[in-house]
Description:
With about 290 residues, the protein is of the alpha/beta class. The protein folds into 3 domains: about 5-110, Glutaredoxin (3-Layer(aba) Sandwich); about 115-180, Serine Threonine Protein Phosphatase 5, Tetratricopeptide repeat (Alpha Horseshoe), CATH 1.25.40; about 205-285, Serine Threonine Protein Phosphatase 5, Tetratricopeptide repeat. It is built from 14 helices and 5 strands. The protein has helices at about 15-20, 40-55, 70-75, 100-110, 115-130, 130-145, 150-160, 165-175, 185-200, 205-215, 220-230, 235-250, 255-270, 270-285; strands at about 5-10, 30-35, 60-65, 80-85, 90-95. Strands 1-3-2-4-5 form a 5-stranded mixed beta sheet, sandwiched between helices. The mean pLDDT is about 95.
Amino acid sequence: MTDSTHIAAVTTVDFERIVIQGSFERPVLVDFWADWCAPCRQLMPILSRLAEEFNGQFFLAKVDTEAEQALAAQFGIRSLPTVQLFKDGQVVDQFMGALPEGQIREFLSRHLSRASDRLLDQARQSMAAGDLTDAAALIERAQREDPDNSRVFIAQVQLQAAQGNAEDALALLERTPLDLANDPEIAALRGRLAFSAAVIDAPSAEALAAQLEANPNASAARYQLAARQVLADDYEAALDNLLTLLKRDRQYGDDAARKGMVAIFDLLGGGELVTGYRAKMLSSLY
């Protein structure tokens, strides 16, 4: 297929400009191929057709590995065809072999922005601004226009949480789609919602702190205070209370202190606070 605005043959001379620098503007799919490779010839027209169909959502770069052996070696190409996806200057995913078109579409869907994703971003902005009516309308529109976008589910859970329906949101999470089962955003939502549910009808943070001042062994008060601290984004204080609870009353709430700390680790994703308290938690356990 003739190169277009969405497709180009790439060499060592222009790889940096087209692939590396270009991937900061949009994903770049690099097809490493050779003329003698029959699966390569089967795959190339599928990739070219998808590049045109997606109309610029990604750029297709074709690398003839016979002519560009140094490039193939640089990116560890050992079998053909190999297709690598670049984002922000890095390889973020790849597949090998002439996959069926449906599997290639699924591969692309994990990395390409969809029109419905932009609606969901707007919905989150509306939630942050407190306009839950607008957020609900945007989420409903995204679901109507793109029912296959599983990220709509996450937005629906977030909306329930923003409306103060922690228990309903947790119930909704019980129906999490399989492709989101290991999504870090789902794990973070589940943890935050569990803390929200823990403080339904609970005293204020000030009242809970007063209870602990009078009785440092009040496990329920300490857990609820930690939950309120999480919801106020005071993660260090929450982790400190949960660690204290873990040491004093490991059995409270079916290991609630340890589970709570793990939930905060999922919320934060990483960093010095997580590293430090994870070590303290493991030390207390073992």
